[in-house]
Specification:
Length: 664
């Protein structure tokens, strides 16, 4: 039989092959598929390879095993992906949960940080209030202690028995008391007790209340002035003494106050608040002393005590510190860049933002504090501080301006420009003020290096002849900043106008018909977008800029527009006779009068603007009345203002576009 023979030939005994010992080295360890099949058949069938039944059973068994294996493979292959997928899904959910937790953590952290930042001012204020409450509580305890001591003392009775102090004419003759020695002993004991009480810490705290003892001295001066002039002065005059009783009393009281103020000032050098309070009270005392009490200016008061090196330097340091803190507050305030007079047209010509006005008020208050100092050298130190603060404020304005430079027509950018112009205007006025001119002469005569160190001989000569100003350097920096900001604003405006002017620049000037071929000439349609843009921008600039800045703005805009038309229209095109006539008509009858007359209307003062608006409204409502000979037409009123091209309706539109009116 062929098939078994073939099997028999395939399954030849192993003795017909080379033994493992006779094979080359390493080949005995190799496993071939044929060897595996032979071994399997030998093991399963033994020598009975020709038995069909055995082979059939073997084939059936192998097929069954193959089927089982296939089912297992399918089962495993179908079970593993869902598990892997489930594991991946669980990992993805865990990752998403972790990211969500991290996001929530960041959110909570940010909210907590914002809350802490928002609560910090409240905490600071609460801390200050608690400190004030603590101080008041200590004061109350001290006052209660004083009240108790006063109840236990007989001190006022002793003074009354001694008829002291004498602050009014006596109602009865003064005779020595019988027990004068005993009363003197009691007074000595009480004074000793008061001196012991004064050394206590609480009494030291309460002794730093200059308004109390300064006010008390002024009251003594005022109450005793009539008595001194009516009763004591005649006695001195009869004795030939060329002195004033009232002045001598003031000098005596001042000697006590001077000692007290000098002592307080030296102990308050490390307390900014109390020292500042002492300075304010001394300045107020000096003012009342010279005005209400008519104390001679040649006699020293208290101001010379503030000129001690340590006190003066500390005063300057406190002024600088408080001014910087106020600058930070005023620039970060909510209404820092809006004008408090924006609804009052007559008071809002400079359109100064609130921060600029507050800053200049701060400088003015500093001036009022040091104006009365009797030493020009000390006054110059405060003037130097003012110049330093003004330059610091200029730098801060520059920083804010750079943040807003991406929108030069924005409200804040224009407010910064108004602030620079306002400060420059005020400092320019200060340069012509008599007080600052006197300080200028003092700086030259003293050779003050802080003001003259960087100046040449010519500049010093100009200051000496009052041609220059101590604010010239600062004014130059402010003018440079103002010029840069104005230039950036105009360039931004011209960029928009140039875009709108492209159709007009590219008009067919060479092919326009002659003027004789047209019945009437009208404005070129391609010029309308440019004209409207010019009008809108001029109106916006008038609304947001001060009057002086608006004058500079429209003049600068006119120069740039003139150059644009010359370069991009005239030099870039060829013109027929009709084209040249049309260009002349557009310019002389439309653009130039439009800008000029619009500026006239926009720059009218409030009173004239109100009258003109009322006149035009009446003309619009009662047109028939203008036909009478009694009432002049509205055009005559416009002609008186130099307005010839704008129609009354257009003028009314411009008036209604003004930024504000009284009562609005």
């Amino acid at each position: 039989m062929a098939a078994p023979a073939a099997v028999q030939r395939t399954a030849s005994p192993p003795t017909e092959h080379c033994s493992s010992a006779a094979c080359p080295a390493g080949r005995g360890s190799e496993s071939r598929p044929e060897d595996f099949v032979l071994e399997f058949l030998e093991r399963e069938l033994g020598g009975d390879l020709q038995c069909r039944k055995t082979v059939g059973d073997l084939l059936t068994t192998l097929r069954e095993e193959n089927r089982v294996l296939e089912e297992q493979v399918v089962t495993v292959s179908s079970a593993v992906p869902p598990k892997v997928s489930a594991a991946l899904s669980a990992a993805e959910e865990a990752r998403c949960s972790l990211e969500e937790l991290q996001r929530r953590e960041r959110l909570v952290s940010n909210m907590l940080h914002q809350h802490l930042q928002g609560a910090q001012p409240w905490m600071d204020n609460l801390g200050q209030i608690l400190n004030q409450v603590d101080t008041i509580e200590r004061h109350m305890k001290y006052l209660r202690c004083l009240q108790h001591i006063e109840e236990l003392s007989d001190f006022e009775k002793v003074l009354t028995q001694l008829h002291w102090p004498i602050i009014s004419p006596p109602t009865q003759s003064l005779t020595p008391t019988a027990n004068c020695q005993e009363i003197g002993s009691q007074l000595e004991l009480l004074v000793t007790q008061l001196l012991a009480l004064q050394t206590s810490p609480m009494c030291e705290i309460m002794s730093f209340e200059p308004e109390w003892y300064l006010t008390q001295v002024l009251m003594w001066m005022g109450n005793s002035s009539t008595f001194m002039e009516e009763k004591i002065q005649p006695i001195l005059d009869r004795a030939g003494a060329a002195i004033s009783a009232r002045v001598e009393l003031c000098r005596g009281l001042l000697s006590l106050v001077q000692e007290k103020v000098a002592s307080d000032a030296s102990r308050l050098l490390y307390d900014d608040v109390l020292l500042s309070h002492l300075v304010e009270e001394v300045l107020q005392f000096e003012k009342e002393l010279r005005s209400n009490q008519s104390y001679p200016a040649v006699l020293p008061g208290l101001l010379h005590l503030l000129l001690e090196d340590a006190v003066l330097q500390k005063w300057l340091t406190v002024e600088r510190k408080m001014a910087v803190e106020k600058m930070d507050a005023m620039l970060s305030a909510e209404g820092a860049w809006s004008s408090q007079y924006k609804d009052i047209s007559d008071m809002d010509e400079l359109k100064a933002p609130d921060c600029a006005e507050t800053f200049m008020t701060l400088l003015q208050v500093i001036t009022e504090r040091y104006r009365a100092l009797p030493c020009p050298a000390a006054q110059l130190k405060f003037l130097g501080l003012q110049r330093e603060l003004a330059d610091d404020f200029r730098i801060r304005l520059t920083q804010v301006m750079k943040e807003e430079s991406r929108c030069p027509l924005g409200a804040r950018y224009c407010a910064i420009l108004n602030a620079v112009n306002y400060i420059s205007t005020i400092l320019g006025d200060w340069g012509d003020n008599v007080f600052f001119l006197q300080l200028q002469q003092a700086a030259v005569s003293l050779g003050d290096e802080a003001f003259l160190g960087d100046l040449g001989v010519m500049e010093v000569g100009r200051l000496a002849s009052l041609e220059g100003s101590l604010f010239e350097g600062l004014l130059a920096l402010l003018d440079r900043l103002k010029g840069d900001m104005m230039g950036r604003m105009l360039e931004w405006t011209m960029r928009e106008i140039t875009e709108k002017a492209k159709p007009y620049c590219q008009d067919r000037w060479l092919s326009l018909p002659s003027q004789h071929d047209q019945s009437t000439m009208s404005l070129s349609s391609s010029a309308c977008p440019m004209m409207l843009c010019v009008r809108d921008r001029l109106l916006h600039l008038h609304q947001v800029l001060s009057l002086s800045l608006f004058q500079l703005a429209w003049q600068g805009l006119a120069d740039r527009l003139d150059n644009l038309l010359y370069q991009d229209v005239i030099l870039s095109n060829h013109f027929s006779e009709g084209g040249a006539a049309q260009l002349q008509f557009d310019m002389t009858r439309n653009l130039f009068p439009l800008v000029k007359e619009a500026c006239i209307i926009l720059c009218l003062n409030v009173g004239s603007a109100i009258l003109l608006r009322n006149l035009l409204k009446e003309s619009e409502e009662e047109t028939r009345h203008w036909a009478s000979a009694e009432d002049p037409p509205p055009e005559s009123a416009l002609n008186e203002l130099g307005v010839y091209c704008l129609a009354p309706c257009d003028v009314l539109i411009l008036l209604n576009l003004r930024a504000s009116w009284p009562g609005q």
